[in-house]
Structure formats: structure tokens, C-alpha cells
Amino acid sequence: MKRHFIPVFCMLLAGVLFLRGAAVTAGKAYIWHDRDGNVHFSDQPPPPDQSGGDIEERHFKEAPEANPKAVVISDNPIEHAVRCTFRLKNSKGGASGFFINDKGLAITAKHVVKGVTYSMKAEIPGDGKKYRVQIIKKSKKHDLALLQVRINKPTPFLEMRDPQTLVRGEEVYAVGNPLLVFKETVTKGNFSRLFPESDWKSEAKMRRPPFKIRGNQIQFSAPVVPGNSGGPVIDKDGKVIGVVSWGYQNAPINFAAPISYAEKDFSSYLN
After folding, report:
1. How far apart are the C-alpha atoms of 3 and 10, rounded to whole Å?
2. Domain 163-260, CATH class in plain words
3. At residue 26, does pLDDT exceed 60?
4. pLDDT tens, residue by residue, 53-102
5. pLDDT for residue 7 is more than 70
6. Active site residue: 33, 80, 96, 143, which one?
7. Of 227, 263, 220, 268, which Cα lies nearest the Cα of 107?
């Protein structure tokens, strides 16, 4: 039994040192037997009169700093969503985008980056720098584009929620940069329904919605204007349900591309 106790203890002690993180410096651990044969361990060598034999000395390296996957800026989910959303500028204007992982991967609306292949910059809340942006992929059917913001530090990001789980009347928020001037703006509204693609022709008398996009759309009432495009529509818990696409002027009828389409269209980059 005693022979197995020592390696088990060493594993536990190493785990303790690791969990203490950067506050722990490189050090030593001592394993020794007293005169009755009992095993002891400590971070200091035992007094000469207490040890009954050899003292085993172990060295431990400093534990590496933790690198959490989620960078949480605020306990408030709406404020966190604001910090995950950036102002996107390009040679034709720009709009909004938001991070979906901690490595600078982001999403915006496809029409925001239409005809733009370079000179895009991301302006992140609380950061005075402007970061170069690369288009990774554009959806063929939906108003969605995947971006890579060239940043060398972890980015806060939004978790996704399947829009199919939304309930009519549920509170939603649009986050973005209206007119590119009123940055970090939040507007509140309600989820109306998933507007079926088939209803564009039969109900709205349109062959299809703007930008030649297809698929169902999230209809919501939170006010949005140009500059909001590409920003997230989130629920009260800060989870993104869609990407602002377009709406009717002077009417609380706006539309977002379901985030579930992004999960499918960009799945090879998200895994």
C-alpha cells in the first residue's frame, strides 16, 4: 500500500500546483518517512530528528497560464454582445460584424462585403487599434459571410442558438453601428416568426427578398438602419440567433439571416 501512495500523492500535488496557475513559481516537494514508517510530504525538508530515512526531493515547474476559450468581458449578456460586435469599414462604406470564436473568426452579412476584396478594417469596442479583415467565405444562398479579423489576442465571442427554439413575442436585441456613426448601439424588439421563403411571393408579392438571398428569414421588430447590417440579433441571454440583413423603412418589420444557416454553410471552419 505504501509503495502506491507516493506516486498517487505526487500526481495530486502536481495537480494542486497546476490549478494554482501563474501564482505558483517553480519549486520543490519533499517525500519522506518518519521513524514509525509513515509517509509525509511537504514543501520544506523535515527537521533531522523527524526523518527516519532518505528524503526524496521532487522538482516542479511553474504551471502554464490558463488560456480560456471564452473571453468574457461582462457578466451582463447584452454588454458582452456589444463587446463581441465590431464596426466594419471598407472602401464602399461598411456596417457591422461579430466574433464567433476566440481566434478572430467572425460573421457579417454578405451584402456588406459585396465587391470588396481588400482594405477592410475592424474597429473593436474598447480597442483603439484597427485590425485588417479577410473574407474567408461567402454563402451561396444566404446573406452571410465568414471573416477573419487579423488580431493576435483572444477575442470575445457569441454563442449560437437555434432560431427554431424561439417563441413568438420573445425579446430580442439588435447590436450594431447604425449609419456607421452611432457605434455600439443596442435596440430592443420582439421575435415575430420565421418568415418562410414561400411567403415572399405569395404574401409579400416579391419573387425573393433583396440581395438575391434564399431561405427562411427571422422576422423581428427591433429597429435597425443601414450600418446595422451584419450585426447580431441576440436573445436576452446574449446568444446570437441571426444576422441583420434588411428591413422596411419606418416600419417595425426587419429580417435577419438565421444563424443556423451560418453553422451549416461554414461548418468546415467552425469545427
Report:
1. 12
2. mainly beta
3. no
4. 677 776 544 444 444 445 555 689 999 999 999 999 987 788 999 999 99
5. no
6. 143
7. 263
Alpha helices, DSSP H only, in the chain? 2-19, 77-84, 198-202, 259-265, 267-270
Query: What pLDDT, on the 0 to 100 scale, is given for residue 230?
Result: 97
Of 96, 111, 142, 221, catalytic: 111
The number of beta carbons lying within 10 Å of the beta carbon of residue 6 is 14
pLDDT in tens, 120-164: 999 999 998 999 999 999 999 999 999 999 999 999 999 999 999
Interstrand relation of 217-220 and 254-258 (parallel, antiparallel or unpaired): antiparallel
Pick the catalytic residue: 96, 139, 221, 229?
229
Alpha carbons 180 and 149: distance in angstroms, whole number = 18
Tell me what pLDDT residue 63 has.
42
| Kind of pairing between the strands at 232-235 and 217-220 | unpaired
Beta strands in the chain (DSSP E): 27-34, 39-42, 51-60, 85-90, 93-99, 105-108, 121-123, 130-138, 145-149, 171-176, 185-195, 217-220, 232-235, 240-247, 254-258
143 part of the active site: yes
CA distance 210 to 218: 14
49 belongs to the catalytic site: no
Fold of domain 77-157: Thrombin, subunit H (2.40.10)
Q: Name the amino acid, one letter, at 173.
A: Y
Beta-carbon count within 10 A of 5 CB: 12
Ranges of CATH 2.40.10.10 domains, the chain:
77-157, 163-260
Q: Does 111 qualify as catalytic in the annotation?
A: yes
Partnered with residue 121 across adjacent β-strands are 89, 132
Residue showing cell 442558438: 161
Pairing of strands 121-123, 130-138: antiparallel
